[in-house]
Amino acid sequence: MSFDKLHKEAEGVLLEEAGRISKQFEITSEKLHELTHYFIDQMDVGLNAAATREERGLPMCPSYVTGTPNGTETGTFLAAELGGTNFRVYSVKLNGDHTYEIEQLKSKIPEELLDEPTLSSADLFSYMARRTKVFMHKYHPEVFEKGYGKSLKLGFTFSYPVDQNSLNSGTLLRWTKGFNIKDAVGSDVVQLYQDQLDDLGLDMINIVALTNDTIGTFLSLCYSSGSPESIKKGEISQPVIGAIFGTGTNGCYMEKVTNIGKLSEETREKLINEGKEEMCINTEWGSFDNDLKYLPTTKYDIDIDQKFSNNPGYHLFEKRVAGMFLGEILRNVLVDLHDRHLILNQFRTHDQLPHRLKTPFELSSDVMARIEIDDSSTLRETELSFLQRLRLPTTFSERKAIQMIVRAISRRSAYLAAVPMAAILIKTGVLNKRYHGEVEIGCHGAIFEFYPGFRTMLREGLALTPIGSDGERKIHLRLTKNSSGVGSALCALVA
Ligand code: BGC
């Protein structure tokens, strides 16, 4: 057989295999229905189960946030946020007219603090205190001169699952995303941070509220919604869900206190007597279906969870949806295709593959984003991305195969992302309660904001869930900016 013919045949086999793999990522409407019903079921289980570090299913963490802002709130507050990629410190001035002014210091979390089992919580929290000090020197140097007592209120957004017993304390249930600092698990994260602030002479800062980024997103949308400007733009002001699609994924909504069986009877009664009938629940939906009853699962998902993630068996929904994992899924597929001699055959053995392709979590979702929208006839963007980011030359048919797989991975992520939204809308019944049933969902995170086509695919997914296209049309997905800063400030205000 001629070399040319052999080559053509190999190309055909690769594209066929890429098609077969992509098929494994497809999600039907039936699947979305099944998942949505199971999600509703798991919400009820979670609302009534005790929060433990070993729990399965939906954690449904009470947040002790019992009201929503209406945009008239005023005051200046400090806020800090530990996410999966960045640590941010803010000061936020709420103007009371749905607007705010914000100063911010964003620091990329140093690699050595991530996924390093020998570290102690003091290493992480002292880093955070040092960055807080830098922020204070830059934006509020006056506090070092005058006697401020303990008067500077700080709201702390901590984007990991915690068991909260009050607005200003909570113990870490487990790390997700990149961290792996063992002694922090089971500790009160507010205390850990406050101790380090005090040690650095920042004892004028008083951490008065602990919250999750998803709650921050929700509250900040409540604060900015309904402004004269947004009403002029035809926006409505009925936020129902705060959602994150970034490094990780999560969502929250307001639940009736009477439905939160995991709160003690005493707490529920006290809240109701105080007129607090609802509480924001941090669903921690990243942990949906950890038992893998219904979640679609490929062998790549299993490998990522078991071999490469630092929390095997947990957050399995997040591992199919969130930004941290999308590139990793692609990397696993590519390595598998290479091991089977179907792609990148210039590297004869696994060891010869470029470092970036061999190293877990080195292929990031922004490489996928460039490939996703590459509509050039030679897939030039794809070629450049692989050259620049992985030092990998590719053939045209390899690029076609890669793009097919990228698009399958991202579509699965967006369709799955529709499940918790549809489930919460059904459980709360809001689509039928309100005028025209229109609802707002606040969304935050790089995947939602920047991944090409994610929002469109998410909407397609919503229409395929039990809410159907009628329900999907009533949903307004709002991108929230600065949501953790504003959200924590709002929490600090009510503390
Ligand atoms: C965490 C959540 C967080 C989400 C988005 C997840 O890994 O468990 O607490 O809200 O990431 O940052």
UniProtKB/TrEMBL annotation:
Pfam families in alphabetical order: Hexokinase_1, Hexokinase_2
Residues covered by the Hexokinase C-terminal domain: 241-494
Every Hexokinase N-terminal domain range: 20-223
Example of a GO biological process term: intracellular glucose homeostasis
Gene Ontology CC terms: cytosol; mitochondrion
MF terms in GO: ATP binding; D-glucose binding; fructokinase activity; glucokinase activity
Associated pathway: Carbohydrate degradation; glycolysis; D-glyceraldehyde 3-phosphate and glycerone phosphate from D-glucose: step 1/4
Protein origin, superkingdom: Eukaryota
Alphabetically ordered keywords of this record: ATP-binding, Glycolysis, Kinase, Nucleotide-binding, Transferase
Enzyme Commission no: 2.7.1.-
InterPro entries in UniProt: ATPase_NBD, Hexokinase, Hexokinase_BS, Hexokinase_C, Hexokinase_N
Signal peptide: none
Coiled coil: none
Similarity comment text for this entry: Belongs to the hexokinase family.
The protein, known as: Phosphotransferase
Lineage of producing organism: Eukaryota, Fungi, Dikarya, Ascomycota, Saccharomycotina
